[in-house]
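Sequence in, structure out.
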Amino acid sequence: MTERDGEDWIEVAAVGGEEEAEIIAGLLESESIPCEIEGPSATPWGENLSALGASRVMVPPDRADEARALIAEREKDAERNLAEDDEA
């Protein structure tokens, strides 16, 4: 993940757990899209609060559309794979 350069980044995904956010961030980074995860784990109050909020995946504004399209494509692939597994 990368540091922000003073600009407001855009949320492209909000998920219930940091693990899922890390998977999404890894997908984006594999396509050279800079990203950061914001969420409860970034707070100083410990892990017990992580269930109370979502983890958000943030990207620079000029990469948001590309990131959303990539995430949507992967979600469709996952749904298709689940449907194929159900048919087998």
